[in-house]
Amino acid sequence: MAEKLKLEMVTPYKRVLSEEVDEVTAPGSIGEFGVLPDHTSLLTTLKVGELVYKQGNETFYVAVNWGYVEVEDNVMTVLVETAEPSDHIDVARAKAALGRAEEALKGLSSEDKEFKVMQAALERAMNRVQVAGKKTH
Q1: What residue ranges of the chain are covered by domains with CATH 2.60.15.10?
Q2: Which top CATH class is 5-87?
Q3: Closest CA to 80 of 116, 44, 55
Q4: Class assignment of domain 88-132?
Q5: How far is the C-alpha of 89 from the C-alpha of 85, rounded, in Å?
Q6: CB atoms within 10 A of CB 25
Q7: Which residues, 6+ apart, have CB-to-CB distance to 82 below 8 Å?
Q8: Is the pTM of this model over 0.85?
Q9: Between the CA of residue 110 and those of 106, 122, 137, what are the distances in Å?
């Protein structure tokens, strides 16, 4: 039995993480799921949410935005549009984006073309603010 799981997290712009971890919890499109060492092969999609991983007694939080996960041979590869560890999130910028999205939605109806775009922006901003409030422990 493997003792660790290799977590690789990549965006179109950079490698965000490459760590040996004990476990990962991710925001799957159809529900949150967990991965431990020796997990069976898996390919699934992610939604906007909080990815959590543990190394020993420490817990780390990452805000992720839409993507894919593949688990194979004790390697979990996370391919996402964006990924921000909690300690790298600019809270003021995230709150400003949240405010802009809320304001924009006030003037739109669900039939407007921009409604879904602003709704997605609101979801991403809320996630970033929530994850930023969590510190490694």
Answers
A1: 5-87
A2: mainly beta
A3: 44
A4: mainly alpha
A5: 7
A6: 16
A7: 11, 63, 64, 65, 124
A8: yes
A9: 11, 14, 40
